[in-house]
Request: fold
Amino acid sequence: MNLRDLLRITSRTFAIGIERLPRILCDAATIAYLLLRVSDYLEDNEDMQPDEKIRLLNLWVNILREEQPVESLTGQLTHANTENPDAIVAQHSMEILMHMHSLPYEVQEIIVHHVINSTQGMARWAGKGSNVNDEKDLDDYMFEVAGRVGYLVTQLFAWYSFTIRNKQKEIMPLAREFGLGLQTVNVIRGMREDFERGWVYVPKKFLTEMGLSKEQLFDPQHREQALQVLDMMTDKAERHLRQALQYVKSLPWWQHGIRLGCIFPLMFAIRTLAVCRHNAQVFESEAKMTRNEVKKIVMDSTLWGWSNLWLDRYYKELNVIGE
Reply:
């Protein structure tokens, strides 16, 4: 199985954006994404106890540092449940690392640095458990699993583009916000699935303000209060996504492939947020865009994504329920 196939089985939506990047960036982003999916697999694994997750995440860090052979991890994953696409990616860790070593050395350094930092953050949270007390805790978790990815791709873009390199310091804070925005939407749309595996990422402070427990958040008898908690989460997501829009607009218009690599996930996120907003379905199952909406966003953005005026207008259009 080649890297593009691995990318597509783990996330069709992210693959759409990554595959629009210029060739070297496409390769680098694909490899970085897949390495992070290995970390995600170890962190999210429902069959592992926290101590085992921490041990394997730290082993993965040592492999990335080239202090231990990759077989020390893959040898423990031969019987992993391959119904989970991330398990398949983890089993192919050796091939992914081999492809990474064919990239320019500076690109390898960027990828390894941020994947290690993110993996160490995941290990810390695996030990901490789902103790999300307030918004600061949630931001800390989301930074480790997504905000650092914003830093990673921005450094890759800066390596590739002189114009972006000159703006790097200015847009790095926006890159963090981009990651937090995408992850907040991910938390919202996956709220029910996370609850069923024992995790609730909604800050306890939000629940306390509405007089709810974690269990009551998903109880139909408390739907009115739960929808107010959902409003707090969607408002938070939108605050981050507005900054993500500024990030995209700061990218040079003539680097259309780079812009599309960011526009697609941003517009998918804002549309998903509109679908989730004040929608009780979020507490029952995952709320999603339709395939036709995905196709339309891809087509419209490809035609007009070079224009910042259009981006402002389209962002507002997608952010309306029922559009």
Notes: The longest helix spans residues 162-189. The chain has a mean pLDDT of 94. The chain is about 75% helix and 0% strand.
